[in-house]
Write a structure and sequence with these properties.
This protein is of the alpha+beta class and 154 residues long. Helix content is 37%, strand content 14%. The chain has a domain of 102 residues: Aminohydrolase, N-terminal nucleophile (Ntn) domain (Glutamine Phosphoribosylpyrophosphate, subunit 1, domain 1). It is built from four helices and five strands, in the order ββααβββαα. Pfam families: Proteasome.
Length: 154
């Protein structure tokens, strides 16, 4: 039996607000609904930490029939503009760090690249180059992860 590689060339993220992105494979319509409900009720933009809890709850609700996704949530606090980054597994368990998170089929390769290239307090251009190189090198070593990389600058 021949091996099968599914290629999907479309944007896999959608802006939730000016400061966060929604992974599309994680039922973007449900997240958009909950996000709009939150912003109507609270009358303010959602913080990335609160959005992480919202996504985590959505994933945990489907733990017996999960969405097969590992979302990465990155954003800036609307008040303090402090950066926030975390990843969640397919049942919603968060991993919050101060430096970097990885997700997907090439995560083992990306850990090595990110640990060797990442430094604290990088300039935006240097950070963009580091992210691009880490992702491209990891994708080159993993045939399942597909081709190409899109880096979102916020």
């Amino acid at each position: 039996m021949a091996s099968l590689l599914k290629l999907s060339n479309f944007q896999k993220k959608e802006p939730a607000s000016a400061l966060t992105l929604i992974p599309i494979s994680c039922s973007a319509q449900r997240l958009k609904f909950r996000l709009n409900l939150y912003e109507l009720k609270e009358g303010r933009q959602i913080k990335p930490q609160t959005f992480m809890s919202m996504v985590s709850n959505l994933l945990y609700e489907r733990r017996f029939g999960p969405y097969y996704t590992e979302p990465v949530i990155a954003g800036l606090d609307p008040v303090t503009h402090e950066p926030f980054i975390c990843s969640l597994d397919l049942i919603g368990c968060p991993m919050v760090t101060d430096d970097f998170v990885v997700s997907g089929t090439c995560s083992e390769q990306m850990y090595g690249m990110c640990e060797s290239l990442w430094e604290p307090d990088m300039e935006p251009d240097h950070l963009f180059e580091t992210i691009s190189q880490a992702m491209l090198n990891a994708v080159d070593r993993d045939a399942i992860s597909g081709m190409g990389v899109v880096v979102h600058i916020m």
